[in-house]
Design a protein that fits this description.
3 helices
C-alpha cells in the first residue's frame, strides 16, 4: 500500500532512509510539486505507527492518495451544480 507523507520541515530522502525505524516501510521518492514523500507500506500499519517510524521528523499529514494541488484555492461547485440541477 502506498502512502504520501507531508513533513512539517524539509527533509531529504537520504536522511529519511537512514533514520527509518520500521522495516515494513520503504521510502520511494519525493514529489517536488506537493512537497510530499511517497512511501510503500508492506503491511497494514496505523497512522500512529507510521508517524513513530519517522521519529526525529514530525509528520504533518499522511495521505492515502496523491494530493493533487488545486490552483486558485477553490473549486467552482456552484457552477457545476447549476449544470445538474433542473
Amino acid at each position: 500500500m502506498e502512502k504520501f507523507i507531508k513533513f512539517k520541515s524539509n527533509v531529504s530522502l537520504k536522511d529519511l532512509s537512514a533514520n527509518l525505524k520500521d522495516e515494513r516501510i520503504i521510502v520511494l521518492r519525493k514529489s517536488q510539486t506537493t512537497n510530499t514523500v511517497q512511501v510503500q507500506v508492506l503491511k497494514k500499519l496505523s497512522t500512529k505507527e507510521i508517524k513513530n517510524a519517522f521519529d526525529p521528523y514530525q509528520v504533518e499529514k499522511i495521505y492515502d492518495e496523491f494530493p493533487y494541488p488545486i490552483k486558485g484555492g477553490k473549486i467552482p461547485f456552484k457552477r457545476i451544480r447549476k449544470l445538474f440541477i433542473f
